[in-house]
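Hi W., the zinc ion complex you wanted:
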Amino acid sequence: MCIFCKIVNGDIPADIVYEDEKYMAFKDIKPKAPIHILIIPKEHIEKLADIDDVSKNVIGDMAIIANKVAKQLGIDKTGYRIVINNGPDAGQEVYHIHMHLLGGKKLIFAS
Ligand code: AMP
Ligand code: ZN
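Structure:
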């Protein structure tokens, strides 16, 4: 079972900031900004490239949750960035699709 599925199951602890029936959002263990949250579907989907017509709502749902969490954490006015890494060149480390929500400072574009 992948590390994020273990968080969903409660086998690994996480600092959860949002949860519903289908999704979860928790603090990144190695934050790259003052606010760094990961939003995941509870369903195991490996990566963005696996999103199809059936699963496309996952992307929209994660974006709505990112907006909610940004508001909850008080960065809705100052701004934030969402990132989805897909595959090795993007540096995807965990092969369970997730959206990064980054904010709390002026972000520099990192390639
Ligand atoms: P990515 O490179 O897009 O696959 O991002 C994976 C992210 O997951 C990294 O930013 C890691 O710091 C984060 N991460 C890995 N393990 C955990 C964990 N157990 N709890 C919270 N975040 C994690
Ligand atoms: Zn998983």
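The two ends are 30 Å apart (CA to CA).

W.
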